[in-house]
Amino acid sequence: MSNEVRFVDQTIRDGHQSLWAMRMSTPMMLAIAPVMDEAGYEFVQLIGGGQVSAAMYNYRENAFDRMRLLVKAMPHTPLGFGTPPKTIGGFQVMPDSVRDLWMRCCADAGAGWIGLNEFLGNYRDMSGMAELSRKLGLKINVPMVFAITPLHTDEWYTRKAAEIAQSLKPDNIWIKDSMGLLTPERTRTLVPAILTGIGDIPLGFHSHCNTGLAPLCYLEAVRLGARVVHTCLPPLANGTSLASAFNVERNLSLLGYQPMVNRKAMEAESAHFMYVARREGKPIGEPVEYDVSQATRGMAGGVISNLKYYLEQRGLENRWDDVVDDIQVMCKEWGYPPNVTPYSQIMNVQAVLNVSVGERYKVAPDETIRYLLGHFGRPPAPIDQNVLDKVSSLPQAKLFLKWEQPQPSVEDLRKQIGRPGISDEELLLRICYPQQHVEAMYAAGPIVNNYPRGDKPLLALITELTTRKDASHVRVEKTGFSLTLRKFRAKQGFPELYRGRAG
Fold this sequence. Notes:
Layout: E1 4-9, H1 11-20, H2 26-30, H3 33-36, E2 43-47, H4 49-59, H5 63-73, E3 79-83, H6 96-108, E4 113-116, H7 127-135, E5 139-145, H8 154-168, E6 172-177, H9 184-198, E7 203-207, H10 214-224, E8 228-231, H11 245-254, E9 258-259, H12 263-280, H13 292-297, H14 301-313, H15 320-333, H16 343-357, H17 366-372, H18 385-392, H19 410-417, H20 424-432, H21 435-444, H22 457-466, E10 473-478, E11 481-488, E12 497-502
């Protein structure tokens, strides 16, 4: 087996989801994208349904424009996106035509890799998506979410890995330890179990640092045969995010492996995002001490950051432990779904309602009812009958008891939206997201790349100074060099500009 190890960069996808609650704008990414293109990544993960809505709601940005801009800035590095089989964007169960439209729009925007996400384990249901992916020229990767439940044994993972290999024939399968649950001991049994099922398909590894054990698990996974690692760069590594690429790259090198990345480019990327963190007041991920409660609670990094934000917005910070404890009970009641999107968000909301109302399942959103009725797919294990009976008796449950998934065509959907002539991309956004947010996004206009490049501190300083309204000129001096920039007023209708002179 080759000693080469390839890297997938998750900094601008899972990193800022885990630590910054998805608060990273396109200009923050674009400023350093040409340097990321030099790092030698297998691909850079960029978009999931949550990133599309976060870009729209927080920055009035079109995530497909984000991908187009980054594809142009990173011509040598493929970009990746993920798609679930049932929901896109929010928690609506979407017809197959919308799912296919999502995939086509991402491919048209320039994506190179697609992640086929099926976290309940119904992998054969995704064969049509795999076929369409190949027609679109996309490489396929399939994550297997790791969970600690009575159901998710090594034998279960061997069986499901073989199911993926046979029914989907992906280019890559990877272990997705999004809850940071793996220990080195379990990694030593899990990796061989999955390799038994997948044959010659390359195995990747992705683990979060919630318990502090992820860096060790990466080394064990590679030693046992994984040859693709998903990592992030500081400040968006560690904490509840993925392991640091620097740590994994250095340790693999010391063990005799050949990391296929350019460390100098990664250092520049890290310096830029460190600048962004300080400029925007964002948290910086740090290694954590081992905490057994993380292993017993099993919550993904993005779930933790978003649940904390959700509770803070509602003044319920002091009920954190109660809500998390309720989620643990709910996991068994709901048939052991992994605590990842979209199931994590649905369970989070239900747990907050259970705790704040004071009676479990007295109130339940439509999404809870629909999950328990199987609208999101077959749960890994049967639903607790008492819970199902209580939720089914709620007044709004009558709307869903005999519900069947409609399957309108794209043409039917276009008629429903009532906007003839719009692009497929706009149609997709208007189907999946609230109209007022789509309107506000388009009204905001094109994304402007105006963010300072943080790996060049002097350039960033000059850029920042030239934006100040109270400055008429900027002068920089050092031994043997001086630069003066003076503001002048341009013709009517044009902004003020700077002219420079070096001496």
